[in-house]
Amino acid sequence: MHVPIKVLVHGWNSKGSSRMNPQIRDALLHVGDFNVIVVDWRRAAMGTYTTSVWSVPGIGQHLGWFLQFLFNNFGGNWNNLHLIGFSLGAHVIGNAGRTIGGRAGRLTGLDPAGPQWGRNSNAINRNDGVYVENIHTDGGLLGIFDPVGDVDFYPNGGRNRQPGCMLSTCSHSRGYELFAASVRYNHFNGRQCANLNDARNSPVPTNPIISKVEPGLRYQYAQDSDGNNHLVDLWMSINDLSETARFFPEVSNVYHLFTRSNPTRSQPLLLNNVNMLQESNFDGSRRTIVLIHVLLAAENVNVIVVDWSSGANSLNYRIVNWNSVTSGEAVAKFINFVNQWTGSNLNQYHIIGHGVGGHKADRLSPSDSLYTEVIHTNYLTGYVEELGHVDFYPNGGISMPGCDSNECDHARSFFYFAESVTSGGFTGRECLNYYAAVLRIEHKVINSI
């Protein structure tokens, strides 16, 4: 068996047909004659994140045994073996490399998973193969940031946000996207840095990273008529912009008022409709809770539910993101309108959003209010980076007990919040950083949610 072997290993919540595998497979077969083996370990990878982490050493060991079987029966040169793993898959190939005695010629870790791996002896390391390299694109969040190979690449500083990305999941995926592009086009140049800080603070080059339009990559640099470089989204179409332009939240947003006088049947309110507001049960002396897509049992408050379904129902997630900004601006105008006619106090307002609703009026940040808190329960459909004055990470903030899907994890956030309101709250413990929160390393007790 003289043809080089490339082994691809996916990460958490993925399978053999996940996007990473065909993207790298096609790039490899485009440039050379290889035996490409795709490892499908979905039965262990589709569980909760912690359970999948525990499965990694065993999956890696079995992969190592399979490779030994392959070489023992068909021969071959261990130097021609290249193991490639993304996220948790990077730690799988590290364990496989150890199982075969570090004989694999090359290991490539694509943004090796970070949560629960900082002090984990089963993590990929430079002793797992003859040559071990890693590409870090979301270091410190979904990926590990420390150098763990013979060579560690930190494109754009190795952290979120990578060019064209808003979410950590996007930056995380850049690991395999950049690797696939490097295989197919061989056009990236690395600059050696003296240490990790130099790599992190390395200035962005003035020349474009991508010099021509290349199929398969969504975000690429292109020149305008004046020769200036811009990062462009090649998946965007004119129809996307047209659909966004048809959304008018100041007209289409409906605000449903609930009070203890009408706890189950809403009273609809509209921006600038004074009669509807004055005829409703809204009381300006009470606290006002704005829910963006129940509290009455715990406190006598005004609860306003924002219905922006006309902007949130698109099948195109990018359009929903864009619509959330204009819808947030419309909510702000509505609040100003209510205050003007009722004399309510902005300090009495509590705005609550779930999912995209949590980012009304651009990405959520501490400066958005006097006090901003965030509950994180999933790292794929949610956002794991710190966003508020206080960020809560129940059960590590990645996968939730009793859930077997990202949607279930994502929904736990509003269940937890509702329970905290009706039960008197949960006690949180302050952690020094995100990793400490995931590993549940406590610093001190803080106020309840």
TrEMBL record:
Pfam families: Lipase
An example Gene Ontology CC term for this record: extracellular space
Gene3D superfamilies named in the record: alpha/beta hydrolase
Database matches in SUPFAM superfamilies: alpha/beta-Hydrolases
GO biological process: lipid catabolic process
InterPro entries hit by this protein: AB_hydrolase_fold (IPR029058), Lipase (IPR013818), TAG_lipase (IPR000734)
Localization terms from the record: Secreted
Segments forming domain Lipase: 4-197, 361-434
GO molecular function, one term: serine hydrolase activity
Sorted UniProt keywords: Secreted
PANTHER family per record: LIPASE (PTHR11610), LIPASE DOMAIN-CONTAINING PROTEIN-RELATED (PTHR11610:SF173)
Family designation: Belongs to the AB hydrolase superfamily. Lipase family.
Protein's name according to its UniProt entry: Lipase domain-containing protein
Species this chain originates from: Leptidea sinapis
Classification of source organism: Eukaryota, Metazoa, Ecdysozoa, Arthropoda, Hexapoda
